[in-house]
Amino acid sequence: MKQLIVLWHPGVIMARRSYKDITLAQLRSFCEVCRQQGFAPAARALHLSGPAVWEQVQALERELGVELFQRHQGGVVATPAGQRTLAMMQPLLDGLDSARQVLREEQGVAPTEIRLVSDIRMLQEEVACGLVPFQQQYPTVRLVLFHPREEDLDHLVASGAADLGLTFDPGPGHAPPATIVHEAAYELDYLMVAPPEHPLAKKSRLQLRHLVQYPLILNRPEDYSRQRFEAVLHEKGLLGMLRVAVETSTASVSLNCVRAGLGAAVVVANSQGFLCHALRVKPLRCWLGPARFVFVWKRGAYRPPSHLQVAACIRAAAHIGCQASRSRS
What we know:
Blueprint: E1 3-9, E2 12-18, H1 24-36, H2 39-46, H3 50-64, E3 69-72, E4 75-78, H4 80-106, E5 113-118, H5 120-137, E6 142-146, H6 153-159, E7 164-168, E8 180-194, H7 208-211, E9 216-219, H8 224-235, E10 244-248, H9 251-260, E11 264-268, E12 280-283, H10 285-288, E13 290-298, H11 305-328
Parallel strand pairs: 5-6, 5-7, 9-10, 9-11
Antiparallel strand pairs: 1-2, 3-4, 7-13, 8-11, 8-12, 8-13
Helix pairs in contact: 1-2, 1-3, 1-4, 2-3, 5-11
């Protein structure tokens, strides 16, 4: 039963309501049930009993005065109030969970490992080159690099399975989920890449109309880089002439298709990277503008110095490659 406690001080009367505080255990149980969409799987993830998790969520509902879940197809889903609660509470937990590592690193304790997720091409070029100076500063840190499905990258960062991500900016109209934030990383050029003997490689002044005269290797239609290219062709009245020889899911595969002799490609890539070595590269920035990349961070989490240094080294490596490309062009 809630009590009214009156505090007296000469000339001042204050009232304070006494109640049981919301606990971290309640918040962790609630957020895990949201993530797992069920009490039983949440209990397994938290190494607790199902009734214990249920009681924690019930206590949180009483304190907040709202219903957080409703049953749905054998599990539970967050109510609108539950979704709003998750958006407010999850960043607080992530901040608390990350504070320990930040404080330890500031005291000179290096992390054991750093997990980064990205596209194959970025892992092979900007990431690989950038991590060389990082490793010199943090020689004991194990670097774990992996390539997920594009649609899984945000979730891996939000869930803590990855410490940070690096991805192509999804473009206007595609705001990141509420659980993560995007931070500008660097820019690269759209490129036409062809074997030395290809007719496009021999053009002294390449024009957009020249590209549609030959079958091209392009990314998937759902990729923003492909959509940007087709939008520009549409503006110039050239889209109807476009012929696609090969569609790929990543620029690294496109560039290997070029190397194999399947044709010329329009890609976003590092012209100084090894994937473009011995191929003819022509920038398309004057028509398509820059291609932007973003780092993906968990919203609310503090960023340890080592993670910030990883991002800084990758950004520097991309900048060096981009500057060299501009100088050569």
